[in-house]
């Protein structure tokens, strides 16, 4: 039963973070994605989304670190399309 509660909490945090990011409330978005990662340390999407938010905040190094972690996790989880998408973002950030 507790696992289901955690899943619901993670899903709610992801939704809240995404809405905050859409509204350019980047600090709240980073906080919510970080809470997800405290609960689920291998949550590739949270790393990727947090990396994109950090890029929008101007935190290039933080964005690169998060996107690299997301890429590794996506690849480890067999999510090749997600991996390739993150690598494109990374390429753009690393070659600025």
From TrEMBL:
Q: Which Gene3D superfamilies match?
A: Tetratricopeptide repeat domain
Superkingdom of this protein's organism: Bacteria
Q: Which InterPro entries match?
A: TPR-like_helical_dom_sf
Query: What SUPFAM superfamilies does this protein's entry cite?
Result: TPR-like
This protein's name? Tetratricopeptide repeat protein
């Amino acid at each position: 039963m507790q696992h289901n509660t955690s899943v619901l909490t993670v899903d709610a945090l992801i939704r809240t973070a995404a809405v905050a990011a859409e509204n350019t409330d980047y600090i709240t978005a980073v906080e919510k994605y970080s809470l997800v990662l405290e609960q689920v340390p291998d949550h590739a999407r949270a790393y990727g989304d947090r990396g994109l938010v950090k890029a929008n905040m101007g935190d290039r190094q933080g964005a690169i670190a998060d996107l690299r972690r997301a890429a590794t996790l996506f690849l480890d989880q067999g999510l090749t399309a997600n991996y390739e998408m993150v690598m494109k973002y990374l390429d753009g950030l690393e070659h600025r």
